[in-house]
C-alpha cells in the first residue's frame, strides 16, 4: 500500500491535466473531476480515477488540489451542498492552484477553517510547458506547517516552491508575476515589429537579444511563437485579461501605481475585444502589428 496521500484533483484543463498526470507518474493515487468528458477519459488513460462530481472526488481525499480559471469557479466548487467544504473530510488539505483574487483566497481559508479543512493558496507560473515538464514556480500562501506537508507533492509539479506569507500572499505574488509577464511580452512584441520593419534578420536578432540583459524566460518560451506567428494557447489572452484585472484592483487597494501595467492591461483588453481572447498571450504581437499597420 502506498504511503502517499490520496489526491483529489478538480480542474483538468491545459494546466491541470499534465500536472495531475505528473502526480500519477510519481505514484500518487489521483481521483479527478472536471466538466469535460474527454479530460476525464485522459485522466483514466493516465492511470487516474474519474469522478462524476466534486463531492465524489473529494470524499476520501487527504489532499484536494484545485486548478480552475478564476474566483467564480473556485467559489462554485468550494461552497454549497455539493462543494468541497461540505464533502471533504475533516483535516483534509485543500491546495488551490488557481489564479484568483487574494481576497477570495483569504475568504476560502476562513470558511474552510470552520469546517476543519486546511488551505493553501498556491498559484503557479510557467505555463503549459512548465506544467508538462514539472518545472513550474509555485508561490504559496498559508500556514508553515501546511506548506511543509504539501511541499513533497508540490515538488513533483515544480522546481521553485516558496511560501510567500499568510493566506492570500501566493495570489498577490502571482498577480505581480502576471504583471511582469504581460509587460515583458508587450516589450518583446514591440521589439519584434520594430526589428521586422527595420529589415533585420529576426531569428538572429532574437537569439542575440536573449543572450544579453534583454534576455528572459518569456523570450525563451515565446520566441518561436513570435517567429512562427503560432498562437496556439499555452496561456490564453482571456485568462491574462482576468489576471490583469486582479493586479490592477489589488494595486489600487494598497495604493500602488502601475502605469506600464495599466497600459498593457488596456492592450490585452483590446486584443480580447477584437476576438483574440482564445489565443496565447504572445498574440499581443497582433495588437502591436495592428497599431503599426504591419501584417496580421
TrEMBL record:
Kindly state which keywords UniProt assigns to this record, in alphabetical order: NAD, Oxidoreductase
The record's annotation in InterPro entries points to:
6-PGluconate_DH-like_C_sf, 6PGD_dom2, 6PGDH_NADP-bd, HIBADH-like_NADP-bd, HIBADH-related, NAD(P)-bd_dom_sf, Tartro_sem_red
Q: Which GO terms describe its molecular function?
A: 2-hydroxy-3-oxopropionate reductase activity
What's the top EC group for this one?
oxidoreductase
Q: What is its EC number?
A: 1.1.1.60
Fetch the SUPFAM superfamilies from UniProt: 6-phosphogluconate dehydrogenase C-terminal domain-like, NAD(P)-binding Rossmann-fold domains
Pfam families to which the protein is assigned, alphabetical: NAD_binding_11 (PF14833), NAD_binding_2 (PF03446)
Protein name per its UniProtKB record: 2-hydroxy-3-oxopropionate reductase
Which organism is this protein's natural source? Answer: Streptomyces marokkonensis
**The organism's taxonomic lineage, starting at the top:** Bacteria, Bacillati, Actinomycetota, Actinomycetes, Kitasatosporales
Amino acid at each position: 500500500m502506498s504511503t502517499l496521500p490520496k489526491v483529489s484533483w478538480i480542474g483538468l484543463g491545459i494546466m491541470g491535466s499534465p500536472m495531475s498526470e505528473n502526480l500519477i507518474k510519481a505514484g500518487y493515487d489521483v481521483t479527478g473531476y472536471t466538466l469535460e468528458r474527454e479530460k476525464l477519459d485522459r485522466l483514466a488513460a493516465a492511470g487516474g480515477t474519474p469522478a462524476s462530481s466534486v463531492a465524489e472526488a473529494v470524499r476520501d481525499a487527504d489532499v484536494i488540489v484545485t486548478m480552475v480559471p478564476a474566483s467564480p469557479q473556485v467559489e462554485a466548487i468550494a461552497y454549497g451542498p455539493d462543494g468541497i467544504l461540505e464533502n471533504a473530510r475533516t483535516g483534509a488539505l485543500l491546495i488551490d492552484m488557481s489564479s484568483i483574487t487574494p481576497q477570495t483566497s483569504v475568504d476560502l481559508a476562513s470558511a474552510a477553517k470552520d469546517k476543519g479543512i486546511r488551505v493553501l493558496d498556491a498559484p503557479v507560473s510557467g505555463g503549459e510547458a512548465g506544467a508538462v515538464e514539472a518545472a513550474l514556480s509555485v508561490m504559496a500562501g498559508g500556514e508553515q506547517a501546511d506548506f511543509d506537508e504539501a511541499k513533497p507533492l508540490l515538488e513533483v509539479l515544480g522546481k521553485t516552491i516558496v511560501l510567500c506569507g499568510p493566506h492570500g500572499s501566493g495570489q498577490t505574488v502571482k498577480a505581480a508575476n502576471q504583471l511582469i509577464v504581460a509587460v515583458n511580452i508587450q516589450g518583446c512584441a514591440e521589439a519584434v515589429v520594430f526589428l521586422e520593419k527595420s529589415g533585420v534578420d529576426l531569428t538572429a536578432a532574437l537569439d542575440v537579444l536573449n543572450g544579453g540583459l534583454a534576455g528572459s524566460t518569456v523570450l525563451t518560451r515565446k520566441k518561436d511563437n513570435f517567429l512562427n506567428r503560432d498562437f496556439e494557447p499555452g496561456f490564453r489572452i482571456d485568462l491574462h485579461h482576468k489576471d490583469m484585472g486582479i493586479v490592477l484592483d489589488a494595486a489600487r487597494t494598497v495604493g500602488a501605481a502601475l502605469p506600464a501595467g495599466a497600459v498593457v492591461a488596456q492592450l490585452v483588453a483590446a486584443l480580447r475585444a477584437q476576438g483574440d481572447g482564445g489565443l496565447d498571450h504572445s498574440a499581443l504581437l497582433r495588437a502591436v502589428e495592428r497599431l503599426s499597420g504591419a501584417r496580421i
